[in-house]
Design goal:
Blueprint (H helix, E strand, L loop, with lengths): L1 H9 L7 H16 L5 H6 L2 H11 L3 H8 L4 H7 L3 H4 L1 H25 L4 H4 L21 H16 L5 H24 L5 H25 L11 H21 L3 H22 L2
Length: about 280
Amino acid sequence: MNSQVAKNFAQLKPALLVLPVVLLSMIALFLFSQNALNTNGYVEIQKPFFYAINSRLSEFPNLMYNLTYMGDALVFLSMMGVFIVIAPKIWEAAVPAALFSLLFSKLFKSLFSVPRPAGILDQDSFHIIGKTLVGFSSLPSGHSITVFTFLTVLMFGFMPKELGKKIAWFALVVFVGLIVALTRVGVGAHYPLDVVSGSITGYICGLLGIFTMRKFNLFGWIGQKKWFPFLMLIFLVCVVVFVNKIRTENLPVYYLAIVGLVVSLYKMIKVYVQK
């Protein structure tokens, strides 16, 4: 499996970055044409869509609240833990990709400084699920960046060979990613364009992570057996973190993260004790 992932990554071309950059440029041009490159214009142009999506998705509060935490990097990486053993190339690309996503998220949020819906709209006019977020960090959606960063790495890592299967696989991954990303609108934390721009940015981060891994291989040590005790310690700490989270918020998504960590620990221990 790891060799196939490496082959898939080796076949990727930098030209794949052109389309997402073009899409982000088109969003910027659209906002410019609508005189919406300012906070008030940006919010006003999205109000109808925000209210419509928020109203529909908020009918499923428990589902929205659990799915939205899939955009938490700790949760997603915990579920991906098993790939350290069976396909370490995934993690070798995912780690630099995560660093890019963190960098872009912090940079763009500070640059645009758009207030979240609850910080500028009447809070009684839409549904808020979970914590009420009111900071100036709406654009882009960090959860959307995270989800698409890791999904992009997984998508290209396990890309099928046949064209028909490639299209189906790509469509499935994008669909799953958009469902999770849109929960940010469903819980009242982001506007639709926050999610769209975040998803595209995450796709770019995923590709940059793969290209960085290919050129520098900074994290080639991840799959090496001698480093497993260190990684197992980190995973055990993560288990404790999620157990504590469950004590305050008993969410099924945290149990899934723990299962992912436990399976990963079992796989690493099994490999490590083998001669």
